[in-house]
């Protein structure tokens, strides 16, 4: 019997399948009765799960990031798919085919890591090359960087997602700089590499995807600046000379301004050409991926349009279904 992937679920289908469960919360309703809310996912997507008349015993049957056999019924609610869960049982990971839950396999991670190192080591600026090298030779850092997601929901929200996002963004920067000779190619490339580095500590991804305490209290932009300061000091020892402070300042400015606007979480708006370019290119990559995921997971399977998404203020046109 074929596996029932999240993305293929229709309305009022009977569910009996193993999924990854995270973000569990035991909540009271208006009458004071407890219900369990959770995120249910596989590599095809994720949906909200609701279990009515739950209790503390059910809540403690599994932890965030566990594989769980979910029984219940799918339904549309406010234009989105969800699963009304009737039964939950934790499944031993040894009995699970992890390929159903992994977006990027080991070979793909290794390929992306090789591309990342190749682009960084090809930079002409020796100071920026030494700075990048201090990250690349730090195996503990690289292991975490290659495993981290780029987010918990909106884009590249899976193990290896940060690496994939960064490598793709670096390739995009290399593609556009020939048309803008006034932009420093190496500086923009190192900005693409460093802009989200703080996410290795901002996010928690050992079991499920969530925010760490440090991530919620400080955030990846500030955390990224701290990482750059640390590696800049190491790079001066590696290169045997001081890195120009203006150069380090420009790199840190790209990190703190890459969200583009103060209301989007940037403590500073872009004030250099490289920071401006990084903001637009990062937004492009993130939005193309996240909007594409909304189209892929859309419940309006018979319509060329997605449902209206309040988070982006629009519906999306998917095109006429192929015959």
Please provide a written account of the structure.
- By secondary structure, the chain is an alpha+beta fold.
- A hairpin with a 2-residue loop joins strand 4 and strand 5.
- Helix 3 crosses helix 9.
- It starts with 13 loop residues before the first strand and ends in a 27-residue tail after the last helix.
- The model has no long low-confidence stretch (mean pLDDT 89).
Layout of SSEs?
Layout: E1 14-28, E2 34-42, E3 45-51, H1 56-59, E4 66-77, E5 80-91, H2 106-121, H3 126-136, H4 139-147, H5 161-176, H6 185-194, H7 199-202, E6 203-204, E7 210-211, H8 213-217, H9 220-239, H10 245-257, H11 273-296
Parallel strand pairs: 3-5
Antiparallel strand pairs: 1-2, 1-4, 2-3, 4-5, 6-7
Helix pairs in contact: 2-5, 3-9, 5-6, 5-11, 6-10, 6-11, 9-10, 10-11
Enzyme class: hydrolase
Organism: Blastopirellula retiformator
Pfam family, one: HD
Strand content: 15-25%
> Major sheet: size, sense and barrel closure?
5 strands, mixed, barrel
Mean pLDDT: 89
* CATH architectural group of the largest domain: Orthogonal Bundle
Look at the helices and sheets and give the structural class.
Answer: alpha+beta
- What is the number of beta strands? 7
CATH C-level category of the largest domain: Mainly Alpha
Provide the low-confidence segments as ranges: none
What's the alpha carbon Rg, rounded to whole Å? 22 Å
- Order of secondary-structure elements: EEEHEEHHHHHHEEHHHH
EC number: 3.1.-.-
Keywords: Hydrolase
GO molecular function: hydrolase activity; nucleic acid binding
Enzyme class: hydrolase
């Amino acid at each position: 019997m074929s596996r029932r992937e999240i993305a293929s679920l229709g309305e009022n289908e009977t569910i009996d399948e193993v999924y990854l469960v995270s973000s569990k919360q035991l909540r009271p309703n208006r009458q004071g009765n407890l219900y369990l809310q959770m995120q249910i996912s596989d590599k095809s997507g994720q949906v909200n799960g609701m279990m009515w008349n739950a209790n503390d015993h059910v809540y403690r049957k599994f932890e965030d990031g566990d594989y769980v056999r979910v029984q219940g019924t799918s339904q549309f609610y406010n234009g989105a798919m969800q699963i009304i869960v009737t039964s939950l049982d934790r499944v031993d990971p040894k009995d699970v085919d992890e390929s159903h839950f992994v977006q990027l396999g080991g070979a793909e991670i290794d390929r992306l890591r090789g591309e990342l190192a190749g682009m960084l080591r090809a930079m002409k600026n020796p100071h920026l090359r030494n700075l990048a090298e201090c990250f690349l030779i730090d195996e503990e850092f690289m292991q975490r960087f290659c495993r981290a997601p780029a987010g918990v929901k909106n884009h590249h929200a899976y193990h290896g997602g940060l690496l994939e996002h960064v490598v793709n963004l670096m390739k995009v920067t290399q593609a556009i700089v020939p048309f803008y000779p006034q932009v420093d190619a190496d500086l923009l490339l190192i900005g693409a590499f460093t802009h989200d580095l703080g996410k290795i500590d901002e996010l928690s991804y050992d079991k499920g995807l969530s925010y760490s305490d440090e991530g919620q209290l400080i955030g990846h932009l500030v955390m990224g600046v701290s990482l750059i300061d640390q590696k800049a000091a190491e790079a001066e020892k590696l290169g045997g000379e001081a890195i120009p402070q203006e150069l380090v300042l420009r790199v840190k400015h790209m990190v703190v301004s890459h969200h583009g606007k103060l209301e989007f979480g940037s403590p500073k708006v872009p004030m250099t050409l490289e920071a401006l370019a990084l903001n637009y290119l990062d937004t492009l990559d993130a939005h193309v991926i996240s909007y594409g995921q909304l189209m892929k997971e859309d419940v309006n399977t018979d319509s060329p349009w997605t449902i209206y998404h309040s988070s982006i203020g629009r519906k999306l046109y998917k095109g006429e279904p192929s015959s």
